[in-house]
Amino acid sequence: MLKLESLAWRYPGAPAAALDGVSLTIAAGEVLGLLGPNGAGKTTLISLIAGALNAEPGQIVWSGAPRAVGWAPQDFAFYPALTVRENLEVFAGVIGLAGAARRARVAAAIAFGQMGGFAERRARTLSGGMKRRLNLALAVLGDAPLLLLDEPTAGVDPQSRAFLLDAVRQLRDEGRAVLYTSHYMEEIEAVADRVAIIDRGCVCADGTLAEVCAAAGGEAKLQLGSPLPAPLAEEWTRRYGLASLGAQRWTLKLSGPFELAAVLTELAKQGVAVRSASVGEVSLEDAFLKLTQRALRDDA
């Protein structure tokens, strides 16, 4: 549905580009989970797709679907003094809906957000979770084929988070494309068909959850039948982050499963007996830390 080609953006006076050559695709019926530390460029990327900023340089190429976007930003994007229904009516008018079409889309958005019992409540009186639902209801109001959801569960209770994640799955099942950013790894793991990790304005990884984790490598565990020679231990400490678990048990951080074969070959050359060897799976959090060298919420 959407192809991003070498998108770049630098804020005036900034020492570095917020985005530097970002290329991604988003397909219909797909949730693309976008991860990155604070300041990595996630919100800037969403702003470019939504048209709030113009890519300089780069291209945003649409295919097939109408060029319409629904956007739920991090901040609440509604009028606090208006009721839920009044907010939806106002924004329906902004996007050009009128008459029966407006009434139908407002009713559909209220139903989607399960806000029927709150339609006449002023937005400022809603709980944090209900405000997030209203944000999402406004995003789906225009029935757009592409939804941009920027931290849609920020500050909500567990029940509201579960509802919002189910709503994202429903959008995907309806054939929408969803770009979803979050500070919660478990949310990305729960709803994303593909994952993209960006850091310092560049894409570090892009693929399925399994592909991204595999690309980050894994941790090998060795149980040896004889001591590890000191020179080899020193070399592997530098190369693989070798760590002892005691009783001739060791861990090594490998860049991929293929490196385990090289490790076993070297042990055989040194005459070291191997009782067992395995490579464990890498979690999304492990992959993120390895690829960015930063925690998800780091600012620097």
Structural class: alpha/beta
Indicate how many domains the architecture comprises.
Answer: 2
Averaged pLDDT: 89
Radius of gyration: 24 Å
In a few lines, what is going on in this structure?
By secondary structure, the protein is of the alpha/beta class. 36% of the residues lie in helices and 25% in strands.
Topology, please?
Layout: E1 2-9, E2 19-26, E3 30-35, H1 42-50, E4 59-62, E5 69-72, H2 84-94, H3 99-112, H4 128-140, E6 146-150, H5 158-173, E7 177-181, H6 185-191, E8 194-199, E9 202-207, H7 209-215, E10 218-224, H8 230-240, E11 243-246, E12 249-254, H9 258-269, E13 274-279, H10 284-292
Parallel strand pairs: 3-7, 3-8, 5-6, 6-7
Antiparallel strand pairs: 1-2, 1-4, 8-9, 10-12, 10-13, 11-12
Protein model, in words:
This protein is α/β, with parallel strands linked by helices and 300 residues long. It folds into two domains: 2-213, P-loop containing nucleotide triphosphate hydrolases (Rossmann fold), CATH 3.40.50; 219-281, Alpha-Beta Plaits (2-Layer Sandwich), CATH 3.30.70. Helix content is 36%, strand content 25%. The protein has helices spanning 42-50, 84-94, 99-112, 128-140, 158-173, 185-191, 209-215, 230-240, 258-269, 284-292; strands at residues 2-9, 19-26, 30-35, 59-62, 69-72, 146-150, 177-181, 194-199, 202-207, 218-224, 243-246, 249-254, 274-279. The strands form three sheets. Strands 5-6-7-3-8-9 form a six-stranded mixed β-sheet, sandwiched between helices. A four-stranded antiparallel β-sheet has the order 11-12-10-13, covered by helices on one side. Strand 8 and strand 9 form a beta hairpin. It is elongated, with a radius of gyration of 24 Å. It starts with a strand and ends in an 8-residue tail after the last helix.
